[in-house]
Each structure stands twice: as C-alpha cells, then as structure tokens.
Write a structure and sequence with these properties.
Blueprint (H helix, E strand, L loop, with lengths): L5 H4 L7 E5 L2 E4 H15 L4 E5 L4 H12 L3 E5 L5 H11 L3 E4 L13 E4 L19 E6 L9 E5 H15 L6 E4 L6 H14 L2 E4 L5 H8 L5 E4 L1 H10 L4 H9 L2 E4 L6 H11 L4 E6 L3 E5 L13 E2 L3 E6 L15 E7 L5 E2 L3 H7 L6 E9 L5 E6 L4 E4 L2 E4 H9 L4 E11 L3 E10 L8 H11 L8 E4 L21
Parallel strand pairs: 1-10, 3-4, 3-5, 5-6, 9-10, 9-11, 11-12, 12-13, 24-25
Antiparallel strand pairs: 1-2, 7-8, 8-18, 13-14, 14-15, 16-17, 17-19, 19-20, 21-22, 23-24
Helix pairs in contact: 2-3, 5-6, 7-9, 8-10
Length: about 475
C-alpha cells in the first residue's frame, strides 16, 4: 500500500498550507517536522492515547502516531470518569499525547504524558508504515448497548475510504476544507483532518463552530464545508440575516452533511437561499464511509447517495435473506463488505464474531430502503428506529422529516412503544417552534398522513423543551424514555 500522506513523506512543500486552527497554522514542511518528532517519540509503543481537543496539537499528534505505524486512541475530553476509565483499561495505551498546559483527569495519572510541540523539528523526512493491516486508530463506539467498544481501524480502511471519497467528491489537493467538528470521532478526525492531508490539500478548523466562522472561511478561499445536521440547521436559520454566509455558501464547491440525517426542510431552505445543495453521506465508526451522493450526481434530499467505489452494500430481511429487488419502499437492514471495514472490536472476539455474517458482511444495524437506481435512504437504527405497527415495518426517519416540515415543529424524534392492538404505536417527541402554542396530536397526525401514509401517523404526542443529543448532534433516543 502506498503511504498514507504522500505530501508529508516525499519532500514536503515548505510553503504549502496544511493545517490552520484559528490564528495558528502549519505548512506541509512544518507538519512533517512536528509529526516526525512525535513519530520518533512514540515509535516503540503499541497504542498511544491522544487527548483530542480541537487544536493543532491533536492533529499533529495523530499524524505523528500514524507516521510511526502505531495505533492512536482518540480520547473525548468530555468523557465521564467511568467511560474514560473503561477506555483506558481496555486499550492500555503506553503514552498519552496532549497540548502543553492541558489539565488531564486523574484517570490518566498513571500513563506517561508527552506534550506535543508543534514547532519541534527532525532532521529527516518522516517515514510512513506500509503494512495495510496495521491498526491505525482505535475509536470507541457510543456505548448505547453497554460499555463502549473499541473499533480497530486498519490503515487499509483509512486509505480505501479517503480515496473512494476523493473519487465521489472530486476531492483534490486544490481543495480547502473548513469545519468545526470534534476530533475524537471518525467524521472530524478521519474525514476532516486526515482526508485533506491525504489529498495534499488544506484544512481550516474553526475550533468552535459558528456561522460567522463558516462565512469568513468560505469567503476567504475555502472550497468545502463539512458539518452535522445541527450545524446546517443553524446555518439555515442564520441565512436570512447573514448576507456574508449566503455569499460564502453560494461559492463553495461542496457542502457535506453527515453523522445523522439532515432534515429535508433544512436542505430546501439552504438551497433556496444559496443555490447550493447539501450532499449527504453514510458511514459509521466500524465501516468508515459506505455511501455518498456524488459531486457529479443528483443531490437528492433525504438520501445518502450510492455505494462508494469498493463498497458492496445489500439490504436483508429479518431472517437474513437479501432483498432481491429495490423499490424505494421495502425496508431492510444494511449490510456492507469492503476494504473500508474495521478488523475487530478490541478484546471482544464475541462481539466481533456477532457483527459479521459467515461470508464477511458487516451487520450495521441500520435500516434503509433503496431505489432502483441505487440511491439509499436510511430510515433509522434497527434497535431504536424500526417500528412494527399494524403489520407494517416503518422507519422513524421519514416520519421525523415529515414532522419537521410542519411550521409549528422545531425539533422532532419518533419512537415506538408497545400497543396491544398494533404491536407498536408511533410516538412523536416534539419541540414546538412556539412553546406557548404547540401543535396538537390530531394536527400533526393529519400532517404526516397527508405526506406519507395513514399507517405512519403518530398515535402519541409528547412535548419537550429540547431533545437529548450527543456531541455529534445525534438524538439519544434511549434517553427519551426518561421523560415519560
């Protein structure tokens, strides 16, 4: 396999921009030197933890660990003591990398600390480990069904995903990416930092997301924007009042949303104001990226596009039998196969075995429908978003999108709960646009029935002040039960 970062390991350009975080930046030559210094320090380790703040140090640390052929374990600085303790016991890192001055929690006291100096240099161009199966990252899942599991992601998967996205998005070294995503997750770290560096392009990280920051960078030469639906919702809300934001988005080459479904009404508001359509892609920690709307394809709102080059994707029935035809209506579980997959859950051979079929397909747990032309639409998680009501299999996602089209709804989530007649009844959790005049159940049920089908209308309505969300903006549906 070729090197992960050709622009770093083959006479890096002294002036070519690589990373910028706020007013701090590094050229490719400076990144090669700083990353090479980290690589020299960690080369003898097996796994190295990185305190993954949205800073230049985190990017340099992860790049240096990868240049050394060692596995990086990104740590979420907002993890609680119990979760962090579990991750450290499970991954057993020999070192923890951090920015100078970072206050680390007590759980890290017994692990040797190395402060990253982004201006440190080495006398030689850094090497890059060639073995494609060498672990590159151990990224911990959200732990919704138990303690977080460490997905071991090999270098082969990084290269396969980033090259497939380059094909789908026509991504080159001339692109400049702007985003404000956290760096302890696949979206912000792999796509948002390692992606531009593999292409030889540049990334400008906002540190903290703001619509003003997005407008500033897009109007100053950035060509691509990555975000999650919460960010794009804030953008859609700000567009009528921020002409600089409209201008910046209008000139961007590519606007990409991921990590959760982007509501159709936000798609339409952004397109109407800017003439640009946001494209969506679909992936997860264990698979990196599986599908995307292509830059040269139709940006069809509500879909995540087609399988990426090198990715096989199929939908299966509850008994595991593959669907034999795709009609855009029949719901099945997504299974994928390809070089983009992780190798194992660290120290969990039982969970690893359960995640794969006998012939190597990964069971994603996501439910979807597929159009005859290959476009995929995710309708939810099998565990929380597949509702079986009145003999129908219903995906929560399409009902949520329909609810969000109602002017009285600001946020919406849909779940199922036991019903003696229907099996499960559809429950709508709604944050009202005007808390003093929230829409009623009959009004919302009729609204959904007109857009979808009568059997998809909510039977129960619960109003909330806000929906529980994680760091990536995903709604935590299991936490909704606490509000009953």
């Amino acid at each position: 396999m070729s090197t992960l970062f050709p622009a770093l390991t083959r006479d890096p350009a002294p002036d070519r921009p690589a990373l910028r975080f706020g007013d701090r930046s590094l050229s490719y030559a400076e990144l090669a030197a700083a990353g090479g210094a980290v690589a020299d320090r960690v080369r003898a380790a097996r796994r190295v933890a990185v305190w993954a703040t949205p800073t230049l140090e985190t990017a340099v640390g992860v790049v240096g660990v990868l240049l050394a052929g060692v596995a990086a374990v990104p740590l979420n600085p907002r993890s609680g003591d119990q979760e962090l303790g579990h991750i450290l016991r499970d991954s057993a890192p020999e070192l923890v990398l951090a920015a100078p001055g970072d206050a680390l929690p007590g759980a890290l006291d017994d692990i040797e600390r190395y402060d990253i100096d982004v201006r440190e240099t080495v006398d030689r161009t850094p090497d890059d480990h060639p073995d494609p199966e060498t672990p590159a990252l151990v990224v911990y899942t959200s732990g919704t069904t138990g303690p977080p599991k460490g997905a071991v992601i090999p270098r082969r998967a990084l290269a396969a995903t980033l090259d497939a996205l380059a094909d789908a998005w026509q991504w080159t070294g001339d692109d400049v990416l702007v985003h404000g995503l956290p760096l302890f997750h696949v979206h912000g770290l792999v796509l948002g930092v390692l992606g531009p560096l593999r292409r030889g392009g540049a990334v400008r990280h906002l540190g903290r997301f703001s619509t003003e920051g997005v407008a500033r960078e897009l109007n100053d030469g950035a060509t691509m924007l990555f975000g999650v639906p919460t960010m794009y919702h804030r953008i859609a809300e700000a567009l009528p009042h921020e002409p600089a934001l409209v201008k910046g988005l209008s000139t961007a080459r590519l606007l990409v949303s991921g990590s959760a479904a982007l509501p159709v009404h936000d798609h339409e508001r952004i397109a109407a104001a800017t003439g640009r359509r946001v494209i969506e892609r679909y992936g997860m920690t264990e698979t990196l990226m599986n599908t995307s709307v292509r830059a040269d394809g139709e940006a069809r709102a509500g879909t995540v596009g087609v399988p990426l080059p090198g990715v096989e994707l199929r939908l299966v029935e509850e008994d595991g039998a593959p669907l034999t035809s795709y009609d855009g209506e029949t719901v099945g579980e997504v299974q994928v196969r390809g070089d983009n997959l992780f190798t194992e859950y660290l120290n969990r051979p039982d969970a690893t075995a359960a995640a794969f079929t006998a012939d190597g397909w990964f069971r994603t747990g996501d439910m979807a429908v597929r159009e005859a032309d290959g476009y995929v639409r995710i309708v939810g998680r099998k565990a929380t978003d597949l509702i079986k009501s009145g003999g129908y299999k219903i995906g929560a996602g399409e009902i949520e999108n329909a609810l969000l089209e109602h002017p009285g709804v600001r946020e919406a989530a849909v779940t199922g709960e036991p019903d003696p007649d229907l099996g499960e009844r559809i429950v709508a959790w709604v944050v009202a646009a005007d808390p003093q005049a929230p829409p009623g159940l009959e009004e919302l049920a009729d609204h959904v029935a007109r857009r979808l089908a009568p059997h998809k209308r909510p039977r129960v309505l619960r109003h909330l002040d806000a929906l529980p969300r994680n760091d990536m903006g995903k709604i935590m549906k299991r936490a909704l039960g606490e509000h009953v």
